[in-house]
Amino acid sequence: xxxxxxxxxxxxxxxxxxxxxxxxxxxxxxxxxxVLGAAGGxxxxxxxxxxxxxxxxxxxxxxxxxxxxxxxxxxxxQQAHGHLAAFDLVPGAGRKEAAALMRxxxxxxxxLMAGRPAGDGDTGVALDAGPSSLTxxxxxxxxxxxxxxxxxxxxxxxxxxxxxxxxxxxxxxxDGDLWVQIGADDALVAFxxxxxxxxxxxxxxxxxxxxxxxxxxxxATAQPMTARNLMGQVxxxxxxxPSEPDFEQRIFVPSGSDxxxxxxxxxxxxxxxxxxxxxxxxxxxxxxxxxxxxxxxDGAPLTGGxxxxxxxxxxxxxxxxxxxxxxxxxxxxxxxxxGGAAMLRRPFSFHDxxxxxxxxxxxxxxxxxxxxxxxxxxxxxxxLDRGDALSAFIRHEASGLFAVPAAPKKGEYVGQRLLET
Length: 421
Known about the structure:
Layout: H1 6-10, H2 27-36, H3 41-50, E1 81-89, H4 95-113, E2 135-140, H5 142-147, E3 178-184, H6 187-200, E4 205-214, H7 247-251, E5 266-275, H8 277-280, H9 285-292, H10 329-333, E6 344-345, E7 348-354, E8 360-370, H11 377-387, E9 394-404, H12 416-419
Antiparallel strand pairs: 1-3, 1-4, 2-3, 5-8, 5-9, 6-8, 7-8
Helix pairs in contact: 4-6
């Protein structure tokens, strides 16, 4: 990941007023936030994932769209605001229209992520803001290949996910030809990007579903830490890290795959997971921790240590019982319990109001990344489905699976290697 420097944004050749220049005096801390990312390379790429930006640099931080190993929005720190949307190509639209759409969307996203307006028709919603760590990520669903006549290029990783017992899926809020993930650390910047992408779809595609989410704002805690979900649990402790030697092979499709257009890309599994918060909040703290297998206060295993301490899965207490229960979520989802299966989780929380009885429609927009969903998400979810104590407090209400190509080079668009084969 290489955040843009002021120079890289200024050399774009666009005549529009740069949102970044409207920041005025961002202060020394803001300027530092822009310069630090200019070093690029693997070191900066890894550090950015594990060191969230300080609050004073939130507006000034930019992320590159082109010329990077993978699309933005996968390994960046979780942003405070997110939008997910799926689009379907309109009847009669095919490969030619899809290519034109991806060209428009890619050009638009490069401008928005650099802090530039969305062309001559910019609405001005984000006019006073800097890039705010905006990322726009694109993926293709299984049906996209049918509609564009590219079935022979559809990768096997897009085979439909199996059914799970906790699924109560709404077909209207699942799947889709095209998928867009938007994240930013400013709510107006995130909405501005969503609206611009939707308008730029033009007559080629229509919104199938759209969901919005949020996370804790960067700098809201005394020191960087793993985010909490709406159950109050530290969520994401076991994520693989770029510093690990097998990170790339677990998360990204290797070169030389059966579908070269996807080399360096990844697969995103997207699930809307309702949390049954009324039931969860009736549990005692002790019971909640038994369900998860970790302390709620700091995310450390019940067997002791800190958040990053390995689970001592064989440890027993004075009563002879396992300290981390057999059906604890942390135990069942641990890679060592699933043949090393791993996925990079990068979710957003959501809250879409209250029902007539006061029940919150809230939970997790679960997004996980892996090189192969049949070796990442599927085996772990199958095991959770058979005995996870957390299953009684959640409900999977929507689902999608998308192939996400690598980032385009300068002058190219996302999916060009697929659509111009």
